Amino acid sequence: xxxxxLKKNGNVNQLNYTELPLPSLKEGEVLVQTKAIGIxxxxxxxxxxxxxxxxxxxxxxxxxxxxxxGVVTQSRSEKFIEGDEVFGLINFxxxxxxxxxxxxxxxxxxxxxxxxxxxxxxxxxxxxxxxAYQSLVHLGGLKSEQKILIHAASGGVGHFAVQIAKHLGAYxxxxxxxxxxxxxxxxxxxxxxxxxxxxxxxxxNDYDIVLDMVGGDTIDRSIPLIKKEGILIxxxxxxxxxxxxxxxxxxxxxxxxxxxxxxxDMKVIADYLQDGILKPHISKIIEFNAMEDxxxxxxxxxxxxxxxxxx
Length: 311
Ligand SMILES: NC(=O)c1ccc[n+]([C@@H]2O[C@H](COP(=O)([O-])OP(=O)(O)OC[C@H]3O[C@@H](n4cnc5c(N)ncnc54)[C@H](OP(=O)(O)O)[C@@H]3O)[C@@H](O)[C@H]2O)c1
What we know:
Blueprint: E1 2-6, E2 15-19, E3 29-39, H1 41-47, H2 53-56, E4 67-75, E5 85-89, E6 102-106, E7 110-112, H3 119-124, H4 127-139, E8 147-150, H5 156-167, E9 171-176, H6 181-186, E10 191-194, E11 207-212, H7 217-222, E12 226-234, H8 242-249, E13 253-256, H9 263-274, E14 282-287, H10 291-299, E15 306-310
Parallel strand pairs: 8-9, 8-11, 9-10, 11-12, 12-13, 14-15
Antiparallel strand pairs: 1-2, 3-4, 3-6, 3-15, 4-5, 5-7
Helix pairs in contact: 4-5
């Protein structure tokens, strides 16, 4: 099978197209023929030697990628049979290996793809959608009639977070630049704020939750908008504790977060997709042999919705 192997950390030239034997299956795994792969900033961070590179650096071969949609071709699990169409977030935060024509996946990381959506849509609705769902529901405990501000509402995580928060009945404001204002409003946000202006500074300090997908000075700009005992969830903060420290000095809770592969949460996401509660926006579909173009698109930092690679 064809796969893209990361020889060592560095730039896109480290992504090497290679012929590998089909992966062998452990008990509880299925072999999935990949139809579509979702590309995420964590792929680039890991390629650059950050993200979860340290954890994976001794893997040989090291194959990037964590979200996919495809067809089961072999099964060592009672959950799926050959021919099932499945999607999910594979082994996160571990070795996902989805940049390949075939992937050995724990059956517990997969759910059946709803018949009313394509493999592209399903692949788009794994890592970013689970991040939005787990951070808003499990960590933030978002409730109806709460007020939430979602940064980078036009991005991969943000566009799902808006849809989930609206589904849960919250008042939702979202940031992006002016060029993505109409897109952010089309997702159902109650208010758009252009982060390139002082619109954020003019907001009242009555948000229950801010969901930050940007980090850096967005954390500082968000803290004054959160009511006492409110919550700031910083998705890109990783091991950086500054969000927790800055928030507690201001009488709010500052939380970091890492998404995890989870069967039950994926079932919710699949139901949301099936019922039209989540509608992934795919801005680009790129061929497998042009992975460097997919990475360049994400690296630019202005993706609207998701970038998908097709096989
Ligand atoms: N901790 C975890 O488990 C986890 C999980 C998923 C993602 N993440 C991290 O979360 C971050 C976001 O991921 P993503 O996939 O959503 O990224 P993305 O899709 O690449 O985000 C792109 C979007 O960000 C917007 N944007 C850029 N700068 C902004 C700013 N200063 N304020 C507001 N919006 C801004 C852009 O809008 P404009 O073009 O209008 O500027 C664009 O639409 C990444 O750092 C990623 O690694 C972490």
